[in-house]
Specification:
Blueprint (H helix, E strand, L loop, with lengths): L4 E3 L2 E3 L1 H11 L5 H14 L3 E5 L2 E9 L1 H14 L3 E7 L6 E7 L2 H7 L11 H15 E3 L8 E3 L4 H13 L5 E5 L2 E6 L2 H10 L3 H50 L8 H12 L5 H8 L3 H16 L39
Antiparallel strand pairs: 1-2, 3-4, 4-6, 5-6, 7-8, 8-10, 9-10
Helix pairs in contact: 1-3, 2-3, 2-5, 7-8, 8-11, 9-11, 10-11
The structure holds zinc ion (ZN).
Zinc ion (ZN) binds next to α2 and α5.
Length: 340
């Protein structure tokens, strides 16, 4: 089984594959067979009629897999007259199945069963399997997690919801186009329900796809996290390098404390290093290294301290001015020292 199979060029949905698996399964015990027959009758909205042979259940417009399953179950259980009719459809054939019921089956096929779910666990599973086959669907685990049942009436919706919740399946109830709907959106709930109804190949496929999907999600989250961290490192490193350039251009570097000069040198030699790497090179804690780099930024942002005497007037440029004369130079006067 694959998440999206392909047979003869025709795409097979995950739902069809799960149903094909369930349709092939025939429970061994007659009580399970009876409950699965009755469940399919209710889920497929069959109707009862009195015929010359007795009470008869008619199920119409069935797909091949469900029609075959009804015939197999009826034969396995025995004591049921069964007949079926194929009608050719535009896209695919559909089937009608008639079952002549004996007294125990007539009771299970009769009204009010939604209020009396079977007591045996095996029969509860048979009913749930029948409803998934008859009116259920599940999305491929590669898409958004979604499993749903379209019960034939609000009373069946309540009965099935109660049964599912008792079995630990966190199903939710809703309405679509005026029809009751039960659905599940979480992967664990879907896997739980598929395993309760015996779709073991589907469970394996679902889990395999889910693991791959969650793993690739985790890898992407990690990559995004790392990319964001690299961007942050690059941004703060370029701010620090600009500050160091500025302090150097203003000739203020020599006035800094040895600790700050060492931090500036380390950043200049390792522009791509993270804070942790720089701290290691400097033999400092991360917070001490961070403090020094921040201090470099603050100092660059402050106007440089001037000496007690006024700075020599003149433009602070080093190129020849328009007159062709060398301009006066800015003179750094020792004495004012930036502090760490
Ligand atoms: Zn049983």
């Amino acid at each position: 089984m694959t998440a999206a199979g392909d047979v003869g060029g025709r795409a097979i949905s995950f739902s069809s594959e799960v149903k094909a698996e369930l349709a092939q399964f025939t429970p061994a015990r007659s009580h399970c067979q009876e409950h699965e027959l009755a469940g399919l009758f209710h889920a497929c909205r069959g109707h009862l009629e009195q015929t010359s042979q007795g009470l008869s259940a008619r199920l119409e417009r069935l797909p091949n897999g469900i029609a075959r399953k009804l015939v197999r179950l009826a034969h396995a259980r025995g004591g049921v007259e069964v007949s079926f009719l194929r009608s050719a459809g535009a896209h695919q054939d559909s089937f009608r199945v008639d079952l002549v019921l004996d007294a125990p089956l007539a009771e299970l096929f009769g009204p009010g069963r939604e209020e009396q779910m079977p007591e045996r666990g095996c029969d509860q599973k048979a009913v749930l399997r029948a409803f998934f086959l008859g009116c259920g669907s599940v999305s491929s685990p590669t898409a958004a997690y979604h499993l749903e049942l379209s019960p034939p009436s609000p009373a069946w919706s309540r009965g099935l919801s109660r049964l599912l919740k008792e079995r630990g399946v966190p199903v939710r109830a809703g309405v679509r186009a005026g029809q009751p709907l039960l659905y599940l959106k979480d992967g664990d709930g879907i896997v739980h329900l598929l395993s309760v109804i015996g779709a073991s190949r589907a469970v394996i496929e679902f889990e395999k796809t889910r693991v791959l999907r969650e793993l690739s999600g985790a890898v992407n989250r990690q990559l995004n996290f790392e990319t964001a961290n690299i961007a942050k490192t690059v941004a703060s490193s370029s701010r620090q390098l600009a500050a160091i350039d500025q302090l150097e251009a203003a000739g203020r570097m020599e006035r800094l404390s040895p600790a700050l000069r060492a931090a500036a040198r380390a950043r200049r030699s390792h522009p791509d290093a993270t804070l942790a790497e720089l701290a290691r090179r400097l033999g400092l804690s991360r917070s001490a290294a961070n403090h020094r780099l921040r201090r470099l930024l603050e100092l660059a942002a402050e106007p440089g301290r001037r000496s007690r005497t006024a700075a020599v007037p003149g433009p602070l440029t080093y190129g020849p001015d328009q007159s062709g004369r060398r301009p006066d130079r800015a003179v750094t006067v020792q004495g004012g020292r930036d502090v760490d």
